Amino acid sequence: MLTPADAKARSLVDLEPVASDSLLQLIALAAADPRPEKIDVGVGVFRDGAGNTPILKVIKEAERRLVDTQVTKAYLGSAGDKRYAELLRPILLGEHAEDDRIAGLQTPGGCGALRLGFELIATANPAARVMVGTPTWPNHPPIIAAVRLERVDYPYYERGQGAIRFEDMREALSGAAPGDVALLHGCCHNPTGADLDEDQWREVVRIVKERGLIPLIDIAYQGFGRGLDEDAFGVRLMLAECDEVIIAQSCDKNFSVYRDRVGSLFVKTGSASATSTAMGHVFQRAREMWSMPPDHGAAAVHIVLEDPELRSRWLVELTAMRDRINSVRQRIAAADPRLAFIGRQFGMFSMLPLSREQVLKMREDHAIYMADSGRFNVVGLSDDQIGRFTDAVVEALDA
Ligand code: LMR
After folding, report:
1. Residue 295, Cα to own-chain centre: how many angstroms?
2. Is 190 a pocket residue for ligand 1 (Cβ < 6 Å)?
3. Considering only CA atoms, which of 319, 317, 389 is closest in space to residue 350?
4. Cβ of 44 below 6 Å from ligand 1
5. Closest residue (by CA) to atom 4 of ligand 1?
6. Of the residues 27, 43, 253, which should be mutated to test ligand 1's pocket, given the most ligand atoms within 8 Å of the CB?
7. CA of 43 to the centre of ligand 1 (A)
8. Digitized pLDDT (tens) for each residue of the chain, 399 residues in all
């Protein structure tokens, strides 16, 4: 332990270097590659057939209205735009939208929601352990470490088979203690694309309830898998069965507002008054970290969801994004029987059974940028890149 004298002697020059986030590093690496044929399937952003990440037409329209009608930028408070969070309720919570034991607030992206959810758990029970199926989003472990909760990893996915290791998941969750946290991916699992089916969700919900665990569901890709309602199946089942549920949600992808950082956190407890107390802590933690969330992106989403015409046009644009994801998946799956599993998965990501060396070789030989883990963004490919990508992958698998 540092004495005050030691602490005084240390300064910023004594800091150890820290490895930068692997996914963010990949954005810079791909951008710096001068080869015009480069393929960037690293970070998770939707691209259309031409390889662009356009602003949705409904968001453009909402932004125009915002500029024309917004009369003040005065503070809104730690909850952000309350109407935005209300408008999300039926989309995310479905039949539970009116449940007064569930409260929500606007957060800076899904990442802000996750941090706040874990902050709440650490405030209530610093001894809680977080059960994490691996592989998972590379930013989950650092967020859990930042709130000083213990993490227990269990294997979620068998890479060579493209399959969920459900028995391992059952065993790990069944061995968890009451009050421990089950971190779950609501849909479009990042990084594997391997989602629980409905029976598996039922079983996970049963174990969570029986063991008295707290589920924290990260749902960042609602609407990118099977549809808005279908993708919320696990969230809604958990809400139907369990008294305490935490949901970290993101609009960054399904409204394509990535850099505007648009998310929300929803908390359910056994009573409206306990939820209100929990939200008091949530507001306090938010105040300490970012005080208030950025307004612009959520204000645009609010305008889209409030206006029936814009809302139905958003559903059309969302469906088009989902259809492209699924059609690229089918094209990749058809290229080689060893890639067939990609056609049975959901969302933006899948994981290729390639070693780190093979991934780096593809980077060097073909200017193809994917995560070291073999995770690639299915929909990072433009239409004319798909053939070249699958050829390179098949070449690597044959080697
Ligand atoms: C991803 O996994 O690529 C996205 O969620 C972007 C991010 O912040 O890592």
Report:
1. 20
2. yes
3. 389
4. yes
5. 44
6. 43
7. 6
8. 455 555 566 899 999 998 888 888 899 999 999 999 999 999 999 999 999 999 999 999 999 999 999 999 999 999 999 999 999 999 999 999 999 999 999 999 999 999 999 999 999 999 999 999 999 999 999 999 999 999 999 999 998 788 999 999 999 999 999 999 999 999 999 999 999 999 999 999 999 999 999 999 999 999 999 999 999 999 999 999 999 999 999 999 999 999 999 999 999 999 999 999 999 999 999 999 999 999 999 999 999 999 999 999 999 999 999 999 999 999 999 999 999 999 999 999 999 999 999 999 999 999 999 999 999 999 999 999 999 999 999 999 998
Encoding tokens for residue 237? Answer: 């089942």
DSSP one-letter string for 305-316 = HHSHHHHHHHHH
Tell me which residue has tokens 């061995």. Answer: 175
Tell me, using a 6 A CB cutoff, whether residue 297 lines ligand 1: no
Which positions are annotated as active-site residues?
137, 218, 220, 253
How big is the chain by its Cα radius of gyration, in Å? 21
Contacts (Cβ under 8 Å, ≥6 apart) of 206: 241
Amino acid symbol at 318: L
| Atom number in ligand 1 closest to CA 21 | 9
Q: Which amino acid is at 329?
A: R
- The residue contributing the CA closest to ligand 1 atom 9 is 23
Asked if residue 222 has its Cβ within 6 Å of ligand 1, the reply is no
Distance 190 CA to ligand 1 centre (A): 8
Distance of CA 309 to the CA centre of its chain: 28
Q: Is the CB of residue 221 below 6 angstroms from any atom belonging to ligand 1? A: no
Half-sphere exposure in the Cβ direction for 328 (13 Å, CA): 33
